[in-house]
Amino acid sequence: MVIALIVIVCVVAGLVFFAGGTLGLLRFPDFYSRLHPAGKLDTMGALLVILGLAIHQLFPVTLGSALTGLKLILIVVFVFLASPTATHAIVDAGFRAGLEPWKKGDPWR
Question: 100 to each of 2, 32, 76, 105, 106, how far by Cα in Å?
Fold first, then answer.
């Protein structure tokens, strides 16, 4: 019962982070500021959702469930390494392409 509650809290919190990242992606004015919530909040949302899945998979404890939980944790490690790297590469590509950052007086944004 307690494990199910922890899993539900982790998954719902992860979905809240995903929703916040989506809202930031839709509401922020330019390319650079949109990538910030997309990179940060989606990474945290993935961490919480996969953590909840790993906890759910772990009980009852068997060798197969422990190995599956370990694989899920390795996925989290990969996401934590790949997401900031990909966000940086996308921002660098936008900068090299000549995208100008948003300024407060821009009327069309």
Answer: 50, 9, 33, 13, 11
The string of pLDDT tens digits covering residues 15-73 is 999 999 999 999 988 888 999 998 999 999 999 999 999 999 988 899 999 999 999 99
Report the alpha-carbon distance of residue 42 to residue 38 in Å, rounded.
Answer: 6
The tokens 């922890």 sit on which residue? Answer: 6
Render pLDDT for 13-30 as a digit per residue (tens, 0 to 9). 999 999 999 999 999 888
